[in-house]
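Memo to structure team: turn this sequence into structure tokens by end of day. - J.P.
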Amino acid sequence: MLYEIKNDKLSISADTFGAELHSIKLDGKEYLWQCGDAWKRYAPILFPFICSPKDRTYKAGGQEYHMAANHGFARDSEFAFSGSTKNSLSFTLKDNDVTLAQYPYHFELEVTYSIKGSKVTVTNTVKNTDEKAMYFYLGGHPAFICDIQGGKCTVEYEKNEHIVQPIPNGERTILDGEKTITLTRELFDYDVIMKDHPASKAVTLKKSDGGFVKLSFPHSDCIAVWTSTGNPDAQFICLEPWTSVPVYEDDAFEDIENKPHAIKLAPEAVYTYSYTVEVG
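Reply from structure team:
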């Protein structure tokens, strides 16, 4: 079910399926990619994995588990609508038979969207309701409308960055002490462009129509930029704040307890992770 809130400038909507944002409008203008055949998502939540381990298989407590889909199960789960205020919407996912078959932990994941002025704050709260420590990765994957043909749009990092992307038989430099990437579809021929431990705590998509999307990620250790290369109708760019590099970077460690970038959460402990999207 879709829920909506708005103020005098901004309106957003989010669905109980995946607790996924479906719209961010400023003065009636849509900023969020509206799903479609080119990419059938809006702004999925990545939990309990970012991307996938090798063969989507890992061990926990010495037992082997298989994650059914990329990026974990939250994005394909039905959340409960857990409440609203004038300026916020909240959704909650609890462990169930489907999650436990893939991920052997009892948990609660609450997703809250709050609006103020032209900003949306996304807050993810994980509570460990198990009697043992739990391990997870967490991130956002919002897609924003953008005409990326012919270098009409840019992504600007808050500070100068050095970004090197692995490619077959080597690597290529995306930024070398610079701030701005000029977007083309070909730029993503080798998949996602990500920066581990960036100096920046914000990136700004500057659009060809003069609009912008600024994503601030004060709690992220990794920021990724991506679009689909397989369909010219994929007129969007994803700005993805992640808690860390993806789980596949930890494939040398089969047991989730030993994966260096997995977040360890003690029983009854709570972990909060948030980022903010400003549009204009």
